Amino acid sequence: MKNDENDDYFSITDFAPVFIWTSDVSGERNYFNRVWLDYTGKTIDQERRGNWMEGIHPDDYMSCFESLHAAISGRVPFKAEYRLRRKDNVYRWVLDTGTPRYNGEGTFVGYIGSCVGITERKQMEDELIRSNSMLKSQQEASIDGILFLDENHNISGYNLLFCQMWAIPGELLETKNGRTLLDFLKTRLQNPTDLITCDDCAAAANTSTNPGSIALVMRDNRIFSQHSAYVTSQDGGNYGRIWHFRDITWRTNMENELRQKTKSLGELAAHLEERVKQEVEERVKQEKILVQQAKMASMGEMIEAITHQWRQPLNSLCLIIQDLADTFASDECDKPFMDDAVSDSMQQIDYMVKTIDDFRNYFRPAKTKETFDAVLAIREVLSITWGQLRIHSISVLINGSLYEPNQSADLAAFFLSTFKNEFKQVVLNIVNNAKDALKSAPKPREISFELSANDKTLIINIGDTGGGIPENILNEIFTPYFTTKENDKGTGIGLYMSKMIVENNLSGKIYASNTKAGACFTIELSIGD
Tell me, what's the pLDDT at 224? Predict the structure, then answer.
């Protein structure tokens, strides 16, 4: 070829939109077109004598060298993919294609080749590999057995769980024959026609009655749910079908068991109303008995308290009457003496009448709430029981001050808005329990009231020095008929009724604990409405 013709040839390659190169018979590249040199930023002399290979990425260098060397040795065409460094030191993927070239006499004179950029293609391939890897991971992580059939009904994919669920032989999967596989699946079913086959797929997809899921009953009594759908392209093309199989044996058995239990519950509910009515009537009956027993117990305590309260005034009246008789017998009964005797007698009688009125008011049921000072209410209770407490040498402290029936202490008020008499009944029950515990306790014998309050709650701690309540029965003392007293001295309903009154009528809480000295009953009540 003439020199001017060579110049024209190489001038044309400089304007080609691809990298073009040539080599001699040894494979050494001796020409690079302008597009190549503009990309690498080097001169043609810098790229000759194999220096161009310095631009190949180190990870691709050996595989590229071996491919080129093997092709040149056999003087055959070759293709190689590698990353080539750009002049800004960024590597880009290229596809290098070389072809042996010969002169007019058929003599081998070297290679001519071209490179095209494939970076975008490689990125797409990598993304496709990642997507396929993620899809495969998702398939294997699925709780369903998954089967893919292509548009020709041949197996295109499946996960391990599918093979395990159906116990499919490996040789059958290797055949890649969709029809053979579907026929095998039918052999596992109690009713083979339940399985949607390849011929049924199109019909099933085009009918509005196609169920979203079908229950398949296996010959070994397992139950699978089957759901299938077409895999389509954006333009509606058919890529095949994907099937999901899930073992729902346990769920189905549980649903059947639940239905059976629901039926049994329905039958029970039909008779439940009558049973509840009977239980309520029995409960009301028992509560009435408890209330009556509580009333009788309170009546006995009231009579005992009245007895103690009246003992002194009755003794005084006896002395006045005896004195009147002696004075009359000695003829010394004048009008002033008679007036004094009458006055003293009326004082004692007024005291006894007041005692009766106090007890009557105490046991009169309250219908409405009232606001009162809890400290004064406690003192009223103590005035009723004071005779009994004094006999057993029991002293009482209210917020640190010693209680005296006829002396008022300078104590802070703690106001409540609730049923006063019911509050007093609870206090009386606890005081009586403390009194019974202290009768046989060593001196000093003491009952203490500690009252404190925050914005919403009044807390009353009623403690004694009676030794406390055994820990093994501490949680039982509020149950009906439970008592630690002898059979003829305790009913076991006082604390139970106190708990009922506090929780149901006073909307509060009551509980017991032990201190170093004895028992402590805590009452928590709302201060206002």
Answer: 92
